[in-house]
Write a structure and sequence with these properties.
Strand order of the largest sheet: 3-4-5-6
Number of strands: 10
Radius of gyration: 14 Å
Largest sheet: 4 strands, antiparallel
CATH architecture of the domain at 23-99: Beta Barrel
Order of helices and strands: EEEEEEEEEE
Shape: globular
Strand content: 35-45%
């Protein structure tokens, strides 16, 4: 995955994120993070300010995900195993798993999740 500064006159990418082992299924860019899901079964949180990568094992290939609307600290991940998982993006903890309610859904638009849901 390559990132460009659209204000720059050069066409060169400012950063290349090459940690992925399979296709990237969704990317969300927040104020200071780039969050991406992949068919390799991981959510990757790139902290652009700190220059750190948090690689979260999602237990299954990731179809899609979305971040919580208010604080962007939690994400709902749709796995290709037909299980949705709620994950704490700050430390990678899987907070909940939801089975039997969907078949490989895609999440688009902000998800209203809190740690208490």
């Amino acid at each position: 995955m390559k990132l460009w500064d659209l204000r720059a006159k050069s066409g060169a990418a400012v950063q290349t994120l090459d940690d992925f082992k399979d296709s990237v299924t969704r990317v969300i860019i927040t104020r200071n993070k780039v969050v991406a899901s992949s068919v390799d079964g991981h959510i990757r949180v790139f902290d652009m300010r700190m220059g750190k990568l948090l690689k979260i094992g999602a237990k299954a290939p990731c179809n899609s995900f979305d971040l919580s609307e208010l604080d962007q600290n939690y994400c709902a991940v749709s796995g290709l195993d037909s299980v949705s998982r709620m994950i704490d993006v700050s430390d990678g903890t899987i907070l909940a798993e939801y089975k039997g309610h969907h078949t490989q859904e895609k999440y688009h638009g902000a998800v209203k999740l809190s740690k208490d849901n």
